[in-house]
Design brief:
α7 (about 295-305) crosses α11 (about 390-405). By secondary structure, the chain is of the alpha+beta class. Strands 4, 5, 8, 9, 10, 11, 12, 13, 14, 15 and 16 form an 11-stranded mixed sheet that branches. It has a 3-stranded antiparallel sheet with strand order 1-2-3, with no helix packed on it. A two-stranded antiparallel ribbon has the order 6-7. It has one domain (about 75-465). β1 and β2 form a beta hairpin. The relative contact order is 0.14. The chain contains 12 helices and 16 strands. It is globular and about 60 Å long. It has helices at about 15-20, 55-60, 130-145, 155-160, 180-190, 245-255, 295-305, 310-320, 355-375, 380-385, 390-405, 455-465; strands spanning about 10, 15, 35, 75, 95-100, 110, 115-120, 170-175, 195-200, 215, 230-235, 255-275, 280, 330-345, 405-420, 445-450. Bound molecules: S-adenosylmethionine (SAM). S-adenosylmethionine binds next to α3 and β9. It comes from Serendipita indica (strain DSM 11827) (Root endophyte fungus). InterPro entries: Methyltransf_25, SAM-dependent_MTases_sf. GO terms for molecular function: methyltransferase activity. This is Methyltransferase domain-containing protein.
């Protein structure tokens, strides 16, 4: 029988039980986020029709999942009032605000071209509003399906967090966005301390937030010395656009680990790929009229980010080179990198019906994610000098490519564990016996792990084909 049989109806909700069973801890432990309200009907494949209705996803989420409204309030706590609300000054070294009560969240957001943005830095310029949260939560699901859980190396993370319910353990989620990853970890490990930090307030309901989870307003660029040696697990997912010196942040983050703790980086390879095997396609321009509109938007977004101080181009090689380079802090024997290829839309095929359904599910989520993402970049591209008419042209090409083409985005991953005290290798972990029937029954087919830096860089070389292009022209001067 298919992994993805039709959702089983229960009073008041619908749960795709066989699908939920195919997810590993802590997704299942976290109370199965894959629940839906009765208004959602199943497709012939047993997938939910809400996938084609961007906003409906919010009404389908369990209570702890981020909602439409930013309900959390923040107030000064760890902050020195002189440095709270200052940006990128390189001197704060503390969280600007900690979640408490009484300060209106709107102070932390500003509106540009009808979208909301953080007020701490211009370097990170993707929005922080309902449309963005909806997008991020879909992306979270797609990545989770690809990785088959909340992290790429479940056995290691579980072994590190192995105490009753995570007692005495601490988890840090950097640039936590909607807070979805933090919340799922807090539910899975109810005695662990989970801290999510971000430039913008997290849209959660304080009433339903797990008590072991807190959120802080903080700018990673200002340093993380206040978190030195505090965490067992650190998640640094998709924050590259907001970092001004990626390699420095890599070091700052590694220092936040306790001996033996693990850091997991995940970020996009914003060179998009086409077809399978994946091939780079140049950005659309007069020189490449057959090029991709979506690739052009991604390219210009990176350019605009760089102009605002982001090290987004520097991130690419830093992550593909992996964390072996941090051998003074991290144990190289525990470092690996990986590639996760995610299709946009349902074009990626497999002879295995279960795999095909998994790919289709991921593709639907990613199609909606990227359609929203490229629109979210418009305010900054307008500010960079691109006329609306040009953006509309790229945008309509991009929508057509995502809907009818064979586009995919690669997620690059890198992880490693901190050395033991006095530079010893990372302490050995006690393996946790896992019942194989608990493991996901369908393997995501486009996930590759590289065991060494050489393997990782050899894969970079292979992906280089076709990338040697003349960069497209800059925007017209005003
Ligand atoms: C693309 S979202 C990813 C959110 C989340 N990590 C996830 O994977 O769903 C990037 C998030 O990182 C945050 N961010 C970017 N740069 C940051 C910085 N310098 N300090 C703190 N947060 C940052 C942004 O505000 C945004 O919420």
């Amino acid at each position: 029988m298919s992994q993805f049989s039709a959702p089983k109806k229960t009073k008041g909700n619908v749960m795709c039980t066989s699908f939920a069973r195919s997810l590993p801890d802590p997704w299942v432990l976290a109370g199965s986020k894959l629940t839906a309200t009765t208004s959602i009907t199943s497709t012939p494949l047993g997938l939910w029709t809400f996938l084609d209705e961007p906003r409906a996803i919010f009404s389908s989420l369990p209570p702890h999942f981020p909602r439409n409204k930013a309900a959390t309030s923040y107030a000064g706590s760890m902050a020195d009032p002189k440095v709270a609300y200052t940006d990128d000054d390189g001197k704060s070294g503390i969280s600007a605000l900690s979640e408490q009560s009484s300060v209106v969240d709107e102070r932390l957001l500003r509106t540009v071209e009808g979208r909301k943005f953080n007020t701490l830095t211009e370097t990170y310029f993707l929005p922080a509003d309902e449309d963005e949260w909806s997008r991020l939560n879909k992306q979270h699901m797609a990545i989770g399906l690809g990785l088959q859980g909340l992290f790429p190396n479940g056995d290691i993370v579980r072994a590190i967090l192995q105490t009753k319910d995570g007692e005495g353990k601490s988890i840090l989620d950097l640039g936590c966005g909607t807070g979805v990853w933090s919340l799922e970890m807090a539910k899975a490990y109810p005695r662990a301390r989970v801290v999510g930090i971000d430039l913008a307030p997290v849209p959660i309901d304080p009433e339903t937030k797990p008590p072991n989870c807190t959120f802080e307003i903080d700018n990673i660029n200002n340093g993380l010395t206040h978190f030195d040696k505090q965490f067992d697990v650190i998640n640094a997912r998709l924050i590259g656009f907001g970092l001004q010196n990626f390699r420095k942040s890599m070091v700052d983050v590694a220092r936040c680990l306790k001996p033996g703790g693990i850091v997991i980086w995940l970020d996009g390879d914003y060179d998009l790929y086409w077809g399978y095997p994946p091939k780079y396609m140049p950005p659309y321009s007069e020189a490449y009229p057959e090029g991709s509109g979506l690739q052009r938007i991604f390219y210009e977004t990176r350019r605009a980010a760089t102009a605002k101080g982001s090290d987004i181009f520097g991130m690419s090689l830093a992550l593909d080179e992996g964390l072996w380079q941090q051998s003074d802090i991290l144990d190289p024997a525990t470092c690996q990198t990986a590639s996760l290829l995610l299709p946009m839309g349902e074009w990626m095929k497999s002879d295995d019906i279960n795999e095909a359904q998994l790919l289709g599910f991921v593709g639907k989520l990613m199609r909606q994610d990227i359609m929203a993402a490229h629109k979210g970049a418009q305010p900054v591209l307008l500010k960079a000098g691109w006329p609306q008419t040009v953006l509309d042209e790229w945008s309509s090409k991009a929508d057509d490519e995502i809907t009818n083409g064979k586009v995919s985005i690669r997620m690059r991953l890198a992880w490693g564990r901190r050395r033991g005290d006095s530079g010893q290798p990372a302490p050995a972990l006690e393996p946790i016996p896992v019942d194989d029937s608990e493991r996901p029954q369908v393997k995501y087919p486009h996930y590759e792990i590289y065991q060494t830096k050489e393997q990782s860089l050899a894969a970079v070389e292979k992906r280089k084909a076709g990338k040697n292009i003349t960069p497209p022209p800059f925007p017209p001067s005003p």
